[in-house]
Amino acid sequence: MAFASSVSPSMHGLLSNALSRERNATKKICPSTLSLSQHSPVSKMDLNCQWSLRKLLTSHTCASVTDGRETSVENFPLPEGDNWSVHKFGGTCVGSSQRIQNVAQIIINDDSERKLVVVSAMSKVTDMMYDLICKAQSRDDSYIAALDAVLEKHKLTAYDLLEGDDLATFLSRLHDDINNLKAMLRAIYIAGHATESFTDFVVGYGELWSAQMLASLVRKNGVDCNWMDTRDVIIVNPTGSNQVDPDYLESERRLDQWFLRHPSKTIVATGFIASTPQNIPTTLKRDGSDFSAAIMGSLLRARQVTIWTDVDGVYSADPRKVSEAVVLKTLSYQEAWEMSYFGANVLHPRTIIPVMQYDIPIIIRNIFNLSAPGTIICRPSVNEFDYRQGLGPFVRAFATIDNLALVNVEGTGMAGVPGTASAIFGAVKDVGANVIMISQASSEHSVCFAVPEKEVEAVAKALKSRFREALAAGRLSQVAVIPNCSILATVGQKMASTPGVSATLFNALAKANINVRAIAQGCSEYNITVVVKREDCVRALRAVHSRFYLSRTTVAMGIVGPGLIGGTLLDQLRDQASVLKEKFNIDLRVMGITGSRKMLLSDTGIDLSRWRELRKEKGEVADLDKFVQNVHGNHFIPNTVLVDCTSDSAIASHYYDWLRRGIHVITPNKKANSGPLDQYLRLRALQRQSYTHYFYEATVGAGLPIISTLQGLLETGDKILQIEGIFSGTLSYIFNTFIGARTFSEVVAEAKEKGFTEPDPRDDLSGTDVARKVIILARESGLQLELSDIHIDSLVPESLKDSASGEEFLQQLPLYDREMAKKRQDADDAGEVLRYVGVVDVVKQSGAVTLRRYKKDHPFAQLSGSDNIISFTTERYNQQPLIVRGPGAGAQVTAGGIFCDILRLASYLGAPS
Ligand code: ADP
Ligand code: ASP
Ligand code: MG
């Protein structure tokens, strides 16, 4: 797939337009001073900003002529420049009377010489206003009650904040406004339709009210303050694509006029609203108050624009989606712009351009946490990236846009035909759709682009109609729509010219099993954009964020079967979790524990110090689908592993599906690898095709490195000739102890008493368990055998196979003691011992479980207790086999083997080694 440009309008293009406008426009007043207020936040920030361009622009434009009006410094009292500080307070900042009080205090405490404060509507009010229109035009009478609610909200707030004449004036205006609105909404109701300008007029009232209340309150505190209806000042031209372009010249002229009438040092201005050149009220579109503040900042050549909101600054990712996101101290204009364009709604995308041309920094601050310094968005200084955070300066942040669809126009007839792209995007433009990203393969075989989901139907229809002939003639093969997509954008100015960034990005996505549908990288290299399935988006965001920012590997785990082994594993995890986190950056979180009857689920990770009690107290009825969904589906952590600690073939039958869904599987359960061959081969084929891991070291020899040794030999090109071993701790114990002192049945009974055997010792003596291990090793060595192909010499006498119980079996076993004693004696006479072994003969392509005799100096004869021993005879280890020996059973070592697999998984997923 080729990399192609993202369709974000070029910053440089916009900037040069703005600058040329500026050159034509000219300026009147030199800023009285460029010095910074000692107490303002900007004094901390100027370290990172360059002021030279700004100085140049402002001084260059002193005392000259604008738009035909003869002007001089003296005629214009508006003192532009660094003595102005602009603030913008978002809806949540003015969401209640208490919060408006708070805002007033911030304004009063700012000791800047001049202040202009842009204010949004109280939170939810703009939504309420849009809802009024919706209701009225669909002839729903409830608009009247909804309007009453708007009135009530503002009335109550005003009663809280104001008194006397101020209150009376505000309430009288509010009632007039509401009466006017009632009349307008009635007209809309009758017409069953609202024009755009009617709508813009209605929805802008929220800002008019909040600005008036705030201005009154500031005045009440003894500060001379005027409120500004920005429809009198900010003039914009609609662009036809739900956007508007400010007319800076005209706006500046109107600002001068406004200031002549209201020469205040503190101004509270409405956000969001503006007028067209014909003086028709309009808006800067949703969330446009940030843009209003930037426009005002640029008209005033302000020292800084502070955007107050409800978070500590711009985070490395949306903090609602990535709990580990960090606040960025600084961002370049380009980075901030890319972030906002790609969905970080902390800043409106159009906020940057107006201020960037004068190098005016934007500071994002949290009104609810004044101690947080916020994020400074400015031109990076020479030492721009000294403020490294996380993994380094290359990738700064991530953002996502949801509800997109991809459109793929494909066909061999497109190659080398000039005008195809123009025809495609012409058709898209005709339906007014907004193209967010484009990717074209260099073969010119297909053009793929993303549009908002709600626009895709119209786009597809337009394209099919535009290319009807080409489709009929086969020059185009299809116009395909891929719905339910999201964009994940990775932003960082320093990504430019840095090799390896995209490799790391795609690696992190691959490891989280996320399929990338399309890719674009602008040649500015400020962002890399990938399109993923909607449902994968948050997981993708978290995967890349943790890869670049935290360098921490976080794995969500589900433990199936918290019995002896599973329980021991959970205890080991509990004891080791903090060391893994602190020293190795591995964050293992158990999100679910399920037995056959009860399960315990968590969204953030179960407290392992109390998992047993919690399961009892909070456990719910076990449901495997719900369990898997909880562990994998909460999108909180990019990587999921299910650890099956049962010996249940029903659980093993789910592995294929889990792996297919990108869930890693780790298990000591032998059932999947020793089950039907076709299912085993299918599972392994899937494992090899994907980045999803399936580890099963503990299926043979518990914690002993048997599978990994075998895999190591095979992967490095050795040829396995034979694997032979004592794979059963129980049978190892029985034959190590059966040395003539006691009868065979006595030894078996003793093993049972010591807890070394299964409840029914026939499960061990039948050899089936050993046969399963043999088949696992045989298949790992490349042999395609079924379990039934393994020859088993069972130690359970034929006549005792049907004994009703283990106890009955043990009672009758002495009948066969003489036979076993003879075998032992014969061996002993020949200087040999009896051992019950599993054998994989790779050369003969067979496997067996059998009682064999070994010379007394053979390693198998030296065994003690319940140890396992496995010997690999290979082309390299031919004279002397490679031997692995050690305890091969028991909860601690088995759980340890599983734990090793979990850590191997973490390291495959990117944890440091
Ligand atoms: P306001 O009403 O103050 O304009 P917004 O809701 O428009 O506030 O924007 C602030 C919100 O943006 C935050 O509450 C946060 O949830 C969201 N947001 C999304 N992405 C980011 C990000 N990268 N950094 C900070 N906030 C973000
Ligand atoms: N009040 C407007 C809106 O909600 C503008 C803003 O708050 O930025 O869209
Ligand atoms: Mg906002």
From TrEMBL:
CDD domains: AAK_AK-HSDH (cd04257), ACT_AKi-HSDH-ThrA-like_1 (cd04921), ACT_AKi-HSDH-ThrA_2 (cd04922). It is found in: Plastid, Chloroplast. One of its GO terms (cellular component) is chloroplast. GO terms for biological process: homoserine biosynthetic process; lysine biosynthetic process via diaminopimelate; methionine biosynthetic process; threonine biosynthetic process. PROSITE patterns: ACT, ASPARTOKINASE, HOMOSER_DHGENASE. Gene3D superfamilies: Acetylglutamate kinase-like, Dihydrodipicolinate Reductase, domain 2, NAD(P)-binding Rossmann-like Domain, VC0802-like. In the N-terminal section; belongs to the aspartokinase family. In the C-terminal section; belongs to the homoserine dehydrogenase family. This is Homoserine dehydrogenase. It comes from Actinidia chinensis var. chinensis (Chinese soft-hair kiwi).
